[in-house]
């Protein structure tokens, strides 16, 4: 059961959350990102995610390590989905746990911001009348990728 | 499917989280409170929760309304367990969702702090060598309750 996971299948919130269970941890927070229908008034049909998987896993793991250093003992588990993710479906679940809730809120927020910053996952927004790649498509991981 | 629920059964994180699903909400956060084994070095065997149920439901609903006023459109669902809750088991799940994650973090934190402040739920900590009632046992809701 890997704490950091990339999958083309549906994500179970319960499964990711259970990875951070610990008898001394009284609080956990699961952040869930889903495909939403409207962004700035534009109707999204679906999102499509691609990743440079080895580097994505490595950077997810790095986020967990950074969290553990910043908030001693906080456990982290992250699962990100790839491929087509329809409206209402889950693209990412970030679970953290800690003895007390303060650290959970801080660590959870850190994890999602850091994920968007360093994890090489590209997102294609597909609307009724077009599409656009977003995210790390301009990053250093795959400079030959067409825009 | 009530957004605010009090139960003597195990709580499903997925079930509570699904209550705040909305096609325009791209982020949701579920806060999960569990019984932890050690508190200030003292070993807890289990926690036991009691509530003045009608007022507990009313105040949970009030928290949802307050959140909706403070962060327009944020959806909230809260399930709290009563009775015996063993180490590692869930006592409360608070789910919130919003188009964007900022409001989720703020609303989720607000909900748990407010819950502890106004919801008449009593907690008995049962250790290997004793027990103690905590929480609202001194509140105005049930002044005749034995300590």
TrEMBL record, chains A, B:
Heterotetramer of 2 MoaD subunits and 2 MoaE subunits. Also stable as homodimer. The enzyme changes between these two forms during catalysis. The keyword Cell cycle does not apply. PANTHER family: MOLYBDOPTERIN SYNTHASE RELATED. Pathway: Cofactor biosynthesis; molybdopterin biosynthesis. GO terms for molecular function: molybdopterin synthase activity. The lineage of its organism: Bacteria, Bacillati, Bacillota, Bacilli, Bacillales. InterPro entries: MoaE_sf (IPR036563), Mopterin_biosynth_MoaE (IPR003448). Keywords: Molybdenum cofactor biosynthesis, Transferase. This is Molybdopterin synthase catalytic subunit. Belongs to the MoaE family.
């Amino acid at each position: 059961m890997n704490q950091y996971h990339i999958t083309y299948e549906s994500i179970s919130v319960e499964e990711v959350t259970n990875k951070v269970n610990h008898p001394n941890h009284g609080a956990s927070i699961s952040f869930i990102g889903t495909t939403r229908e409207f962004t700035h008034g534009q109707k999204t049909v679906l999102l499509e995610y691609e990743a440079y998987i080895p580097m994505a896993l490595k950077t997810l793991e790095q986020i967990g390590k950074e969290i553990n250093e910043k908030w001693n003992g906080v456990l982290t588990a992250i699962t990100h989905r790839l491929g087509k993710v329809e409206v209402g479906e889950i693209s990412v679940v970030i679970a953290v746990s800690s003895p007390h809730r303060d650290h959970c809120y801080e660590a959870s927020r850190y994890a999602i911001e850091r994920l968007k910053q360093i994890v090489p996952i590209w997102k294609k927004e597909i609307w009724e009348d077009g599409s656009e790649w977003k995210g790390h498509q301009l990053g250093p991981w795959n400079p030959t990728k067409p825009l």
